[in-house]
UniProtKB/TrEMBL annotation:
It is a multi-pass membrane protein. This is DMT family transporter. The keyword Transmembrane applies. The chain crosses the membrane at residues 9-27, 33-54, 66-88, 94-114, 126-146, 152-170, 182-198, 210-228, 240-259, 265-282. Coiled coil: none annotated. InterPro entries: Diverse_Substrate_Transporter, EamA_dom, EmrE-like. One of its GO terms (cellular component) is plasma membrane. The keyword tRNA processing does not apply. It holds the Pfam family EamA. It is found in: Cell membrane.
Length: 284
């Protein structure tokens, strides 16, 4: 029975990782702006997660404290910046470049933690930061700022840096809230941040783009996060971290099959270095 439970949890974690990776595909297919996309996605996610929580008779607003709200506001604003920069990277650089640029966020987290908590980085962390730096250099389509794909890589790196700050904020404001409740509140903050800019554009979004936005909110947020959280009741955190490392791999394979974005030698070399570094950090 224990073996079956672990196998089921592993399948759920891999399914969640595939869905996280597919978010880049939907972002690439969606023709509206990154701000409109992120705001619409958050609205769908908030509605879906609220429904799931109410079905469990555990609404996300129950038992919330002022300290929780402060932490959720900070992390929600940072997540807003992360998602907008991430989808900008996807739109400009392609799925492979955007997702691999974001995949280096554990290196930023290690660096920011060393600064914020005055923790001396280990030799393993320094090695990983060097590997990520070389990997990003390999990913660069060119070293000219006139190249749109280079802009996409820079946006992807920016999304990784911001997500590193999200990890620090979550560590600092960590409370007793469940992952699903945290996700609901953070998406609510995203709506508050972006609705003043995106609301006036919603009427111009074509139905096909709304389909991709709904898929992002339902599949890549609500369903993916539910699978992710449920698998953590069985799997160890380091097992989950190693599986999540595969997110760019799944995204690149799916983009290759569906969008014809074949990875070149630079992407393969850079991706190998970046994912190898993330794997080393995850094993810790």
């Amino acid at each position: 029975m224990q073996h079956d439970a672990v196998r089921s949890a592993l399948l759920r974690m891999h399914a969640a990782t595939v869905l996280f990776g597919v978010s880049g595909i939907f972002g690439k297919l969606c023709q509206c702006s990154a701000i409109d996309l992120v705001c619409g996605r958050a609205m769908v996610a908030v509605a879906a997660l609220a429904g799931l929580c109410l079905m469990q008779r555990n609404p996300p607003w129950r038992g919330i404290t002022a300290r929780d709200l402060a932490g959720l506001a900070v992390s929600g604003v940072l997540l807003t910046l992360h998602f907008v920069t991430f989808f900008m990277g996807i739109k400009l650089g392609g799925v492979a470049v955007g997702t691999l640029g974001f995949a280096c966020f554990p290196a930023f987290t290690a660096l920011f933690e060393a600064i914020a908590y005055r923790e001396r980085p280990s030799m393993r962390e320094l090695l990983c930061i060097i590997m990520v730096s070389i990997g990003l250099a390999c990913l660069a389509p060119s070293y000219s700022l006139a190249d749109t794909a280079t802009h996409g890589l820079l946006w992807g790196i920016a999304s990784a840096a911001v997500y590193g700050l999200v990890a620090i904020a979550n560590r600092h404001f960590a409370g007793g809230m469940s992952g699903m409740h945290t996700c609901w509140w953070q998406n609510a903050v995203i709506i508050l941040c972006l609705l003043p800019f995106a609301g006036q554009n919603f009427s111009a979004i074509v139905p096909l783009d709304w389909l991709w936005i709904v898929c992002l909110g339902l599949l890549c947020t609500a369903l993916a996060y539910s699978l992710y959280v449920s698998s953590l009741t069985v799997l160890k955190a380091r097992q989950a971290a190693i599986i999540i490392t595969l997110e760019p791999v799944y995204a690149i394979i799916i983009a290759w099959l569906l969008l014809g974005e074949a990875p070149g030698p630079g992407i393969i070399a850079g991706g190998t270095l970046i994912l190898g570094a993330v794997f080393l950090l995850s094993r810790r």
